[in-house]
Each structure stands twice: as C-alpha cells, then as structure tokens.
C-alpha cells in the first residue's frame, strides 16, 4: 500500500468532530482548509497554473485533471492556452499556444472553458488583448515507508 493510500485509510478511520461543539466560526474554515490540504497532499499529481497579465479578475478558476495515462506513464509537461474573455466573463476562442505533450491539451482546454471571470460594467471598454494561462503538470515523488 502506498503512503498516500495509507494516509487516506487513516483519515477515513478517524471520527469527524461534532460541528455543534465548535465555539468559533473560524474553526469551520480552518477544518475545511485542513481537509482540502490533506486531500491534495494525498494525491500524487498536481497541475499548477500561471496567468499572463490580465486586468480581468477570475471568478472561478478550474484546475485541470491530470490525465490517467500520463500519470501511469509518469509523464510531466506544460501547456500554454490562450483565449478571449467576453464582456460577461466567459472564455471563448480557446487555443493551445504551446504544449510539451498532447495528453495535457484537452484537460487544459476543458479547464479554461469551465473557468469564468468578473463581468465588465456596461460603461467599461473591453480590451482586445488575448489572455493566456500556462498549466504545469507535475508528478510528486511517492515516498515508500520502510518498517524495521
């Protein structure tokens, strides 16, 4: 059993605290962040991203799924996707600009399509500049635990 699977098994066996016992609302935030961190660290894949300089604020940023075939074959890579943002904050005219491996292109395009940005006010002038986002697909090393 891998370390990530052991962590998941240990996390499932722990009882959840009774939320009515929490005295401060910020504890809910802390617990949810810890749960998200535990889930993220249990996964052995990640997709990081960086944006080009865009004046538009993202409302929803979707991180692409790591392709199963790429994970199985231990392939890492990078994809740069460029797109337009409409007045209402949706993405359109999505195109791959650079890619190190074709396996990562469809998940990156799906992530951009599902992302959204803040709508422009009616009196604002829309920029004709394309936005670009670079996704880096990296595998984290799996650490084997040895028992003596």
Written description of the protein model:
It is a single chain. With 148 residues, this protein is of the alpha+beta class. The protein folds into 2 domains: 34 residues, no CATH class; 98 residues, TolA/TonB C-terminal domain (2-Layer Sandwich). Helix content is 30%, strand content 26%. It has 4 helices and 6 strands; from the N terminus they run ααββαββαββ. A 4-stranded antiparallel sheet has the order 1-6-3-4, covered by helices on one side. β3 and β4 form a beta hairpin. The protein is elongated and about 70 Å long. The two termini are 16 Å apart. The N terminus is likely disordered.
Short structural summary:
The chain is α+β, with helices and mostly antiparallel strands and 148 residues long. It has helices at residues 3-13, 25-42, 68-72, 105-114; strands spanning 45-51, 58-60, 77-85, 91-99, 116-117, 131-139.
Which CATH architecture of the largest domain is right?
Answer: 2-Layer Sandwich
Q: Output the structural class.
A: alpha+beta
How are strands sequenced across the largest beta sheet? 1-6-3-4
Strand content: 25-35%
Q: What's the pLDDT, averaged over the residues? A: 74
Q: Any low-confidence stretches, pLDDT <50, length ≥5?
A: 1-5, 7-14, 19-45
What profile does the largest beta sheet have? 4 strands, antiparallel
Q: Considering the protein shown, what is the CATH homologous superfamily of the largest domain?
A: TonB
Helix amount, in percent?
Answer: 25-40%
């Amino acid at each position: 059993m891998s370390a990530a699977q052991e962590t998941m098994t240990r996390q499932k066996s722990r009882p959840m605290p009774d939320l009515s016992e929490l005295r401060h609302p910020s504890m809910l935030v802390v617990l949810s962040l810890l749960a998200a961190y535990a889930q993220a660290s249990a996964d052995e894949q990640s997709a990081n991203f960086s944006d080009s300089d865009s004046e538009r604020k993202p409302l929803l940023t979707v991180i692409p799924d790591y392709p199963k075939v790429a994970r199985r074959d231990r392939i890492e890579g990078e994809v740069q996707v460029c797109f337009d943002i409409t007045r209402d904050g949706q993405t359109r005219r999505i195109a791959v600009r650079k890619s190190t491996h074709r396996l990562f292109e469809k998940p990156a395009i799906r992530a951009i399509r599902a992302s959204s940005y803040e709508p422009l006010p009616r009196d604002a002038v829309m920029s004709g500049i394309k936005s670009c986002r670079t996704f880096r697909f990296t595998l984290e090393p799996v650490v084997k635990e040895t028992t003596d």
